Amino acid sequence: MKLPLRPPGIRSLPFSFPGRPSFSGRLHDARTATAVGRLLGAAVAVCFVTGLVSHVLQHPPALLANSLPSRPSWGYRFSQGLHVASGIAAVPLLLVKLWAVYPRLFAGPPVRSVRHALERLSVAVLVASALFELFSGLFNTAQWYPWPFSFVPVHFAVGWLLIGSLLLHVAVKLPDIATHWRRRSPGTLSLPAGDAPDRRSLLVATGAAAGAVTLTTVGQSLTPLKSLDLLAPRHPDHGELGLPVNRTAARAGVTAGSVRGWRLYVGGPRPYEITLDDLRAMPQREVVLPIACVEGWSRSARWSGVRVRDLMDRAGAPVGALIRVTSLEGHGAYRVMVMPHTYARDPLTLLALRLNGEELPPDHGYPARIIAPNRPGVLQTKWVSRMEAL
Amino acid sequence: MTRGSRALPVLRAVAGACGVALMGVGMWAAWRGDDPQDPWPVVRWLAGAVLVHDGIVAPLTLLAGLVVVRLRARRAVRGGLLVAASVTAVAYPVLFRPGVPQNPSVLPLDYVRNWLFVLALTAAATAVIALTGARARAWARRPRTREGNDGRKTPRGS
């Protein structure tokens, strides 16, 4: 019986020693690189833009510090879910892309000219930054930090390095990409025709791999798919009152003792202090808003409490004022949060006292926490003790 | 010469220059930004990522390819291995993170069990695709029957 078409050439090792290895396997060609590379490029572009959105919402430049949009209320949930999902989907794309072009690492002569040396250097930067961004992001979602530097500034900086080296790479390779863009493009037609079915099969498998890693993780933010959430670091159903937790009261150093006799200080032209009972006696509002974490998980919940703008109006705070919110927690990067007036005036923004029909548990911020639309989870300050108009 | 082909070098130059500028933004952000970092650990980790991929992951993949390429169902097996490797790469942090998570809602699932389940599902799907592919090939190679090749003469001169 005749065996199916076997790619010729591979008889022993895929590369020969000593000296420069030579590759005889199939599909290490420009058509494969183009077909996978454009998907990878799209995923990296989505990752970069959504990453930038997240960065601006968390660390707004001075120009936007008091005018970030509080709508759509699901905005950050969508953009950060997409950031993590597109990064995860890019993992198989990157592995296949690097496999397709791997023989070029050994192409000779290693350096032909200054321009060639610079091009190879830019490819090294591209490969390094792509691997680093995808895997550092993945490790961050599992709260695993094996490196000696701080994650956020480095992930942010290398993101620029990645998008820049990618743009440079596309510019350098543009003629190759153009001649291999379609199945009937001249460059594609000049490749061995017998490889085409094999390449299609590889591309289908790459799509299947991207689909598999997406389906088994995306349920951490796309709740209708939560039953398929098998490998994500979070699951929508795990957490007190149906909501996952990042920082517990114990870790934040907030104890039963530190909330005893709790009073909220509201600062403005007419500052005042208010007890929990008095807050409960004010008009209560109910909103449905998600907690959307920078790590990609998110979960919608039903909150009730007092509108932030009602509290600030009572202190005579100017409508356009930034609001500084301080937590009871003793330390931590997010102990003090500054809220643009766009959030503070939004009728959905509450100082929440209840979650899903129950009093806030300590880990969700008892006695009172902030919940605002379109805002990263780390800025939904828990254990609030002070709110001041600046 | 069309306008498109004249515009292409300009487009490439502009895109390349923008790329270099964006890389510059990254360097600036890392070492002169709001929270400047010591450059050497970052450079070591960037280089380390390339070394691990090019020195370990890629050669192992090529060695696996050496075996797979000899199999009759090599396309299905290659696809199955690609899915399994991708799932394993993505699950690596949740599988191997050392230490105790900060609270019970972090890493709440039995990841080893789930990972093995996904691998088993991938293996089953691969087997089904390999078998249906083999049957399809056998069908395509089936010998012509008498009915199918009924001995009619080919019309001449048409």
UniProtKB/TrEMBL annotation, chain A:
One of its GO terms (biological process) is respiratory electron transport chain. InterPro entries: Di-haem_cyt_TM, Mopterin_OxRdtase_euk, OxRdtase_Mopterin-bd_dom, OxRdtase_Mopterin-bd_sf. The keyword Membrane applies. Residues 259-389 form the Oxidoreductase molybdopterin-binding domain. Keywords: Membrane, Transmembrane, Transmembrane helix. One of its GO terms (molecular function) is oxidoreductase activity. The chain crosses the membrane at residues 36-58, 78-100, 121-139, 151-174. One of its GO terms (cellular component) is membrane. The keyword Transmembrane applies. This is Molybdopterin-binding protein.
